Automatic annotation (TrEMBL):
It comes from Pedobacter hartonius. Keywords: DNA-binding, Transcription, Transcription regulation. Residues 32-51 bind DNA. SUPFAM superfamilies: Homeodomain-like, Tetracyclin repressor-like, C-terminal domain. Pfam families: TetR_C_13, TetR_N. This is Transcriptional regulator, TetR family. The lineage of its organism: Bacteria, Pseudomonadati, Bacteroidota, Sphingobacteriia, Sphingobacteriales. Residues 9-69 form the HTH tetR-type domain. GO terms for molecular function: DNA binding.
Length: 200
């Protein structure tokens, strides 16, 4: 794919990939221009010759981190046979939020939402859009499961989706604050229970 990208596009992508983990670990406010130049070995002028400002880099970095998570989820969903197994992927993947499936720093949605909820409207909007896309993905799986006869009909799929997302993101937050992955495992058992209860 690099062959079809211009030199400027390749440089932009290099900057995004090199700095995405920093924004995901330190946050927007905590990431300095020096962090960006150290990570890329480029000058400030080179970085801002490709991006208007730090904000533009941060927004692109968020999208890049989100793609990494979505790819990990989609890969496992495609391997799953039943719709119950497909939904369970979320509990499995997010149980390893500090592992290889996730960008360094953990879940970009949680990290960005916590930092930007009152301080950075553009990042807040990115995090909100990511949650809505996640909700839609879960709703789609539930509806397909109902069509396939796996799940009970008549449930409020959007409510269920938000509940699963809230449990997962809340579980990650609790695990991080308490330094206890076991707390996340306990909370994800509730996610598993919700999914099991969908069975027709």
């Amino acid at each position: 794919m690099d062959n079809v990208l211009s030199k400027a596009d390749r440089t932009r992508q290099f900057i995004i990939e090199s700095t995405a983990w920093i924004f995901n670990t330190k946050g927007y406010a905590g990431t300095s221009v020096a962090d960006l130049t150290d990570a890329t070995k480029l000058t400030k002028g080179s970085i801002y010759g490709n991006f208007e400002n730090k904000e533009e880099v941060a927004l692109a970095a968020f999208e890049y981190n989100l793609i990494l998570v979505k790819q990990a989820v989609d890969q496992q969903v495609k391997k799953s046979v039943t719709y119950q197994e497909k939904l369970m992927v979320y509990a499995v993947i997010y149980n390893k939020f500090m592992g290889e499936s996730f960008p360094k720093g953990g879940c970009p949605i949680l990290n960005t939402a916590i930092e930007a909820d009152d301080t950075h409207l553009l990042l807040k909007a990115k995090a909100a859009a990511a949650i809505y896309r996640w909700r839609d993905d879960i709703v789609s799986l539930v509806k397909e499961g109902v069509k396939a006869g796996e799940f009970k009909a008549g449930m409020e799929s959007s409510q269920l989706a938000y509940s699963i997302i809230a449990l997962i993101e809340g579980g990650i937050m609790i695990a991080k604050v308490t330094d206890s992955p076991a707390n996340l495992e306990t909370i994800l058992k509730t996610v598993e229970m919700l999914i099991v209860q969908l069975k027709a």
